[in-house]
Amino acid sequence: MVTLSDVAKKAVVSKMTVSRVINHPDKVSPELRELVYKAMKDLNYVPNFTARALVQKRTQVIKLLILEEMDTTEPYYMNLLTGIAVGLDKYHYALQLVTRNSHEIGPCDGVIATGMRIEDYENIIEQLEPPVVLFGHNDKGYDFVDVDNEKGIQMATQHVIDLGYNEILFFGIDLDEPFMQTRIKGYQKMIEKHNLNSHLFMMKNSSHVSQAKATKQLEKDEERIAFVCASDRLAIGVVRAAQALGLLIPQQVAITGFDGVFLDQISSPKLTTVRQPVMEMGEALADMLLQKIDLDGERLGNRIFQPELIIRESTIK
């Protein structure tokens, strides 16, 4: 049976280095990692993660707690899951998907939570015993990963202003949550900066709802009009409304979305959108949580990712 010592001897490194490569590869230089990985492959050495977990009194399980209702047609969470899984796989952790009704089933070493609402902090988040990291900004003192929502909407609003649009409507998601508040803030800042009139419309995150609301606005307004939307799903509804009325996109109606994970690319015309690097954010969530576990739950703060404005046919012909 091949041992850790055999791998160390083969790679001409210490047992400590081999252990570090297995348990904390990010803390070892790429050159050393390659030496150890090659030695492990040559010797057919497979680390005993079950034994390690028993010694460390860990489960090697991380829970992803999704506290909002998931739309099965929404690719957003698939991208997030992929990123988290990639991050956890580097450390040989399993990922368990749980909801508000199942999060107490089975032990785990830590929790990544998303889709929180105000009441969830007291009722669920504060009751969690393992270390927790949140996906999404919060003011409750929890570590989190998020995108710069305010900057993203500022970029989209400035873009349509630069195209000469003076009437700019904001279609937001009807949720009193930090991510939505900061997106509204980004829109209003740019509107005020350019002395334009603010038009806020809050609604369910549904393309059917946004289509109906956009139709009402477009029917009574003959001017060139732009829609800055808080999601690609809302933006697709606006596209449908403009097309049904025979209006030209983007000559008469300009439309921007937010997310950039799939719906923006299947829209016709393709959507200009604010892209969130969701998979990269998922991997960062995994890295942050595993670091917290190693540090016995120590506070790490937050990580904010920068959005990217992807300009496509819904604003530029």
Automatic annotation (TrEMBL):
A family per Pfam: LacI
Name this polypeptide is given: LacI family DNA-binding transcriptional regulator
Location of the HTH lacI-type domain: 2-56
Keyword Transcription (UniProt): yes
Keyword Transcription: yes
GO MF terms held by the record: DNA binding
Organism (species): Terrilactibacillus laevilacticus
Superkingdom classification of source: Bacteria
UniProt-listed PROSITE patterns: HTH_LACI_1 (PS00356), HTH_LACI_2 (PS50932)
CDD domains found in the cross-reference section: HTH_LacI
InterPro entries registered for this protein in UniProt: HTH_LacI, LacI/GalR-like_sensor, Lambda_DNA-bd_dom_sf, Peripla_BP_I
Entry keyword set: DNA-binding, Transcription, Transcription regulation
SUPFAM superfamilies in alphabetical order: lambda repressor-like DNA-binding domains (SSF47413), Periplasmic binding protein-like I (SSF53822)
